[in-house]
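Team,

Forwarding the record for the chain on the shared tracking sheet. I've put the sequence and predicted structure together so nobody has to dig through attachments.
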Amino acid sequence: MLTEERYQFIRDRLAAEGKVLAGELASRFGVSEDTVRRDLRELAKAGQLRRVYGGAVAPAPFAAATISERARHAPEEKLRLAKAAVGMLRSGQALFIDGGTTNEAIARAIPRDIELTVATNSLGVASALADLPLVELFVLGGRYVRDLGTCVGGDTLAAVAQLGADLFFLGSCGLDASRGVTAFDSAEAEVKRAMARNSAGIVIAVTNDKLATAAPYRVAAPDAISHLVVDKTAPSAILADFERLGVEIHFA
């Protein structure tokens, strides 16, 4: 099989299944794993995949999109995820909620009659919670990045260090059972990691197009996730990988 034919097969398999394994590709192509790894390196350089241990996954979507552009994507799916996610809330909990349009949908779905303490670095999340009478709201300031819709940097990290949470609603750019939770921006990833360290549990509500994908900056290992909220149409094979790691799956 010619090199370009192998490349096209890899691209097609990623589009269909979200993931490829180097060993399986080597057997199918009749070449060495070193050859396959070279193929994956070249495709990674071209931005067509992200390498993970043992193979590769599709690149996370919306790398160059602003938060306003992302807000227009899959609003109905995000609404379903939000309604399912708030079902695990209990009165008296303390939460971290970071940025992302799905997390903004979760904030808008929180009932008015539940008492919570919420800390967020997202202005969209803060705005959605501002009028809830029983929510004690902490806005984590710092350098505001318009395209992200969040505050990042040293001041934000210092504020996070003073707080703790029962649950962290973590916005993910990419999510894969090998690489874990990933983000496009290094400063945003640093804030996410700080929130994760100070939380007893991590909740991720994720649209189907982000499953089995990866962005450049790692946030959390896959087995650090406590709860994964997905649409009922999410691929069962991908979810099975997370279940084997002990992640509790919730369907919207």
